[in-house]
């Protein structure tokens, strides 16, 4: 069991087909106690209960400092420690450069980038006290190639910002034995793209993927487990590409 008795907070993990929930399920199967944080309290609680007994589902908007701090305080009151944080909550908008309005920019940057900062800030004092921790940030291939398949330029910018923030956190937190790494998923079949992928689009995307399939949520969960666990004990500040070879560079 790679995460026996570890407490893992995963944001945006209430969506049944999402990367966060798949990660929660894998972590729980490896002995972790999981804290799911998502927008809706009932959905978070229902997702946590699907993991088995002893997990926790909480509501918070990751872009709201007060809600984040309240949720982390609740998690600490419940479990007394936090070993792993997966900054997974994110939204995307498939719009083009000149159509980006302030509200689009704010919405997308707030969840991915501000959310990553705020939830990390909320758990770092505890990880420092414990003398150990692992933070995993979910970026996107969109950050690396300047636009993805669905995300607009503001999504690409938000996810590139996540990579910069991840690296800076890794430098600053290394001496505290807190590792910070990222995953850059390619196109993974979840609700974030549901209903927006025509057969034609799918074929043209597949033509650029050497492994010749779209990703599954479990592909990202496996990478998250590697980064969360001692298997990656000597890695910090790295980005794992999990994209079927879509971006070989
Ligand atoms: P999803 O839509 O299935 O799940 C996202 C979850 O985040 C949902 O449960 C949603 O309620 C939650 N959420 C949204 N805003 C929130 C907020 N303000 N506070 C708390 N929770 C919030 O999406 P997914 O595909 O599982 O995506 C997970 C992460 O992976 C996102 O950061 C996304 O950008 C990233 N990603 C996904 C893909 C892909 O192809 N699916 C590719 C690259 C990166």
TrEMBL record:
<protein>
    <submittedName>
        <fullName>Short-chain dehydrogenase</fullName>
    </submittedName>
</protein>
<dbReference type="GO" id="GO:0016616">
    <property type="term" value="F:oxidoreductase activity, acting on the CH-OH group of donors, NAD or NADP as acceptor"/>
</dbReference>
<feature type="domain" description="Ketoreductase">
    <location>
        <begin position="6"/>
        <end position="186"/>
    </location>
</feature>
<comment type="similarity">
    <text>Belongs to the short-chain dehydrogenases/reductases (SDR) family.</text>
</comment>
<dbReference type="InterPro" id="IPR036291">
    <property type="entry name" value="NAD(P)-bd_dom_sf"/>
</dbReference>
<dbReference type="GO" id="GO:0030497">
    <property type="term" value="P:fatty acid elongation"/>
</dbReference>
<dbReference type="Pfam" id="PF13561">
    <property type="entry name" value="adh_short_C2"/>
</dbReference>
<dbReference type="InterPro" id="IPR002347">
    <property type="entry name" value="SDR_fam"/>
</dbReference>
<dbReference type="InterPro" id="IPR020904">
    <property type="entry name" value="Sc_DH/Rdtase_CS"/>
</dbReference>
<dbReference type="InterPro" id="IPR057326">
    <property type="entry name" value="KR_dom"/>
</dbReference>
